[in-house]
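Annotated sample (chain length 311).
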Amino acid sequence: MTSQLAEDAGAETSPREEARGRQADLKPKNNRAWFLVLPVVVSVAFTAVIPLMTVVNFSVQDIFTPTDRIFVGLDWFRSISRDPEVRAAFLRTLLFSAQVLLVEIPLGVAIAVCMPRRGVSVSVALVVVALPLLIPWNVVGTIWQIFARGDIGLGGWTINNVLGIGFNYTLDSTDAWITVLLMDVWHWTPLVALLAYAGLRSIPDPYFQAAQIDAASAWATFRHIQLPRLRGVLTIAVLLRFMDSFMIYTEPFVVTGGGPGNATSFLSILLSKIAVGQFDLGPAGAFSLLYFLIVQIISYVFFTVLTRSGR
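Output written by the structure step:
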């Protein structure tokens, strides 16, 4: 009943939306507006396209010196795709991204639902929630590096001395993984919460009035009114959080450096090790392109599944 009343409340605006769509189609199009985006196109060409072509050039050559190089074709791609260390890092990164999504998406939605909708408290809540997003990534890593230490860190000291749990993220792989995961949840859940909150604020009041008339519970209101209207926002949140978590580098590198062992050595850290530490430009170029391709494919799958499920 709640969902039916909500649909009836939303159906009143559909003819207006159709009329606006027809008016938009009748507006004259000015092709000269493309000149306004020309500086952006030129900037992207120099900051993205040219470096990408350079990486492609490196990926098919074995470079000894700036003037001494050998064309090797797809050999580096075969080598990287068969490397067990790269495969292990890929599974590790994929698992981390899955855990991030499973924690941050529901938690962000729950925070958004609990945030106030009116009054001065709205501004206070928005500022408090957005504070972690204002901190640079390397600073976040430094904060958690100190916070999780068992000797001087408030979090690590509390776990060891108050809870009586032997916690040491520098020696135990599980502790290191949990530390990096909690750090990412603390840093980026506010982004999901703000996106969800913006989606909740865009829901018209007649939807909630219909729920009150039907005496719907808070859970029924969330399930039949709020959650369906958040589908588009959550699609954006899932895509943003997946891409960012799958390419995470700074925070775990500052906290654990990829250790202990290879416990938190994600694809980005391994790529940095090959490109900067070993200075193998050919394998690093092939690795970069495969990394980029993986992100694009998985993001496309996510987007396709989420958009089709909402139809």
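Annotation: The longest strand covers residues 61-65.
Annotation: Confidence is low (pLDDT under 50) at residues 9-13.
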